[in-house]
Structure formats: structure tokens, C-alpha cells
What does this fold into?
Amino acid sequence: MPDDDRLDYRSAGVDLERAERTTESLRALVASTRDEHTLSELGLFGGLYRVPPGHRKPVLVSSADGVGTKLKVAFRTGRHDTVGQDLVNHCVNDILVQGARPLFFLDYLATGRLEEEVAEEVVRGVATACRENECALLGGETAEMPDFYAVGEYDLAGFIVGIVEEDHVLDGGRIRPGDRLVGLDSSGLHTNGYTLARRIVFERMGLSVDDPFPGEDASVGETLLRVHRSYLGPLRSELTGAGLRGLAHITGGGIPGNLARILPEGTGARVDLESWTVPNVFRVMASEGGVEPAEMRRAFNMGVGMIAVVEEGETEPFVERLRSEGEDAWVLGEVVKGNGVRFH
It folds into this structure.
């Protein structure tokens, strides 16, 4: 067979040398998240992590998630440093609501053709958020799959493991009618509702990522790429308090879909729509997209990124502690008898 007709992996679309260079460029980023319990370095088949001592009845809590079609905004802008932070913070919040603090994180980046600069930018965001959440980036996978992803696009997923004392697991079982709902503000859309948001902003409104977003001191791209908040910082010291009875991370499904997940059978919630001002970005999308209020509340967080369920007598000091740390926290409703989430 003539040499010109011979195939190899590179000619088929996978450049192993480029993949190895990318792995080496990421080594320092991964190492920057190591802590005293990290027992392995990048490159092994599996990451090793010692369970921290001092726990009487430790429970491991795990979760996996992705960034969704928010990635499409990153592709349009050519900015890739925020989506890795979104991924980590989303996963941190998902185990936080069960009372857990994160131990380690794994990421999965898949693309058609591996662009070294893009991969480094994405993982830099992952490492930044891991350091901020005191979470070790233990390893991950970078997969190059030509013909599977469009040119210039990739997918991103994350996997987290955290720890909590069995006595302090938050599962909603202690929630009772009369408990108060305390809202913590979001930083924007977080990582949900982007399929609808992109259709409104780019198709209905006809905006580009570089255009100013109406009513915002930022471009469309900057507004839509605002990093999904982590609530570990403001809530860490509250996790073992007697007054905290439940937490709901407001992601896909909005307040009605996520708050209902932690309410025991026979209990519902009443949410006061007058208790907070819906941020401008949601009001603009509702108006320009002709989206009904109920659908907006189902698709987006509407400015509420986390809800804490707090015993009535502990609500005021709980809110004051959060506000003293600079948090925008407020009472947005209460737990009632019945089922489902009602707005008034």
C-alpha cells in the first residue's frame, strides 16, 4: 500500500501528541487545588483521596451535572473561562443542600477537535472554583471525538463528592408548617433556561453578544455568562445549626420545581411575589419574549438562587447573620399544610 494511503489516528482526526501537550499544560492548574488529603497527581488511572479524619459517622454525598446550553453563549463570545466555574459551583450547591461540604471534583471535557487554548481556559475556570470552594480537582477526562461535535464546540460535565455527618444530613424530614422560607439572591440565570433565553435574546430581540443588554451596564455576552454563584461560603456555618431545616438549590424547574423536592408529604409552600424585586434581565426577557409569568418562574430562578427553610423562631437571627456577611437574604414565604408551591 502506498505511504500516502496509509491511515493513522492523527489523519483520522485524533492528535494524541496534542492531547498529551494539553494534559501537561493542565498539570499545574490541577496541582493548585491539592490539599493535605490528596494522595495522587494528574495522570493516574484513578484519583486518590483520603477521607478526612474527625468524623464520627461520615456520609459521602455525590452529584453530577453539566452546564447545558449556556455553552452556546461561550461559543458565540469565544470566552471559556466562566463555564468551568459554573460547573463546579452548580455541583457544590447540589450537595450543599444536603448539608455536605465538597471534598473533590472530577471534570469531563469532550470536543471534536481539541483546541489547547480553549481546554486550558475551561479547566482554569474549573480550578479557580475548586480553590474558592476548598475542593480538590482530583482528575478528569479530556476526550477528542471528531465527527461527534461541531467544529469549535465542546461539552462539559462535572462530578463531585462531599462529606457530612449522618446526624447533620439535610433531607427535608424536619420541615414543618410554619417554617419560614429565606431567599438568597442569584447572580443571574446561573446555568438554567438558556435554550429559551437564547431564543429570546438572539432571535426575538435580534441582539449579538457584543450589543449592550437593555437596562444592564454590560454586554449581552457578559450578562448571559455571569458565573453561577456558590452558596457554600454564606451557608457553611449554618449547616449544623438547629434552625436550618432544609435547602433548595433553584435550578431547572425554578422555585416550584425545586422547592417541592424537599417538602415532606402533606406540606406545601406559599411564596410572596412581593418580597423581592425580580432582576432586570428576567423582566426584559419576559417582556420581549412574551413569556407568561408562570412559565418564567418554571424556566428561570427569577433572582432567587437558593432557598433555606428555617424554623420560625430562628428566622430573624438567621437572616441577620447572612446580611452581616453582605448577603442579600430575605423572608420570601412560609411552609404551609397541603401540597405544592403557591405564589401570591
Q: What stands out?
A: The chain has two domains: 3-168, 180-343. The two ends are 76 Å apart (CA to CA). The chain has twelve helices and ten strands. The longest strand covers residues 154-165.
